[in-house]
Amino acid sequence: MDTTVLPRLDPDDLRRRPAAYRPPRRRRIRPLSTVVVIILSLGLALVLAGHRWLPDVGEWTLALESFLPWLGLLSLLLLIPATRSRSFLAWTAWLVPVVVWCFVFVPAILPGGATATGQGSLTVATQNLQGYNGSLSASSALIAQDADIVALQEMKSAEALNELAAKYPYQQQAGTVALLSKFPFKDSESLALNGFASLRSLHATVQTPSGEVSVYVVHGASVSGGDHTARDAMLSDLQGRVSQDTSSRLLVLGDFNAAPSDRVMDGFNQQLQEKLASNGGFGFSWPSKFPATRPDHILSKGLNIKESSVLAPIGSDHLGLAGSFTF
C-alpha cells in the first residue's frame, strides 16, 4: 500500500503566512448622537443669526446678547457627540453654526483699520471711572493717550476735571459725565434723554483745526434685574437725535451699557461705524479683570478710522477705549 508523505510544516512559515481575510466591520451610526447634534447645532445657528427676533424676556435675553460671541464655544462641546455619531449628516449640521458664527463676527474682529486719508486728524478716548478717585496723571493709561478729546462717565467728583484743566482747558459736565477737549466748543449742552436731564448725556460741537465735529457723550441707564426699559428708551432717544444731526462729522462715545450685538444698538449701527480693535479681536472692555463683553463704544460718522484700541486698567471696573481718525 502506497503511503503519502505530507510535507513537514515549519512553525516559522506558519507565522509568516497572512491571516485569513476578514472584511472590516462597518462602523454603526449612532442615531441618538446624530439627532442630538442636528437639533442643538441648528438651534445654535438660529440663535446666532436671529437672536434679535427672540422674545425679550429680560435678564435672559440681555445676558444672551451681551455675551453672544461666547456661544461659539458651544460648537466645541458639540464636537463630542458629533464624533461619537459617526454620521456625515451630524458633521454637516455641526458645521452650520460654525459658518454662521464666522459670518456674524469675523468681519468685525479682523485686524486693521480703514485707510487713513484726509488732512485733518483727531484722537479720542473714553473711560468709565466707576467712582475711581485716583490721579488721572500723564502716567495713567487713559491720559497717556494724549487724546484731543476725552469722555468720562461715572465721575463722582470734579477733581479730575480740575486736575486736567491745564491739559484740557475746554470742559463740559452734565451730572456724572464730562467731555474734555484741547479745542474750543462752538456750543455745548446737557441732554435730557428719556427724562435723564443733565445727568448722563451731553453734546458739544468741537472746533478742531480741520473743522467742526459734533460730539455726544452718553452713559446708558443702568440695567437692574434684567430690566433694561430705561436704557432702551434713553438710547433710542439718542439715536433719534443723532439721525437728525446734520453735521458732516460726528462722534458718539461712552458707556452704553449695551454690547454691539444687543438689539438696542441696531439704530446706532445703521448710522455709525465702529472698529472694535485694530489689532483684531472683540475689544472687550468689561469687567476689567476678565473682559467678556463690550458696553463701551466709540462710534463715528464722516471720519476715517485709523486705529482703535482697548486701554490698560486704571482701577475702574471698565477698561477705557481709544481711537484715532482722519478726515
From TrEMBL:
This is Vancomycin resistance protein VanJ. GO terms for molecular function: catalytic activity. It comes from Psychromicrobium silvestre. Keywords: Membrane, Transmembrane, Transmembrane helix. Residues 126-318 form the Endonuclease/exonuclease/phosphatase domain. PANTHER family: CALCOFLUOR WHITE HYPERSENSITIVE PROTEIN PRECURSOR, PGAP2-INTERACTING PROTEIN. InterPro entries: Endo/exonu/phosph_ase_sf, Endo/exonuclease/phosphatase, GPI-anchor_lipid_remodeler. It comes from the Bacteria. GO terms for cellular component: membrane. The lineage of its organism: Bacteria, Bacillati, Actinomycetota, Actinomycetes, Micrococcales. GO terms for biological process: GPI anchor biosynthetic process. The chain crosses the membrane at residues 32-54, 60-81, 88-110. Coiled coil: none annotated. Pfam families: Exo_endo_phos.
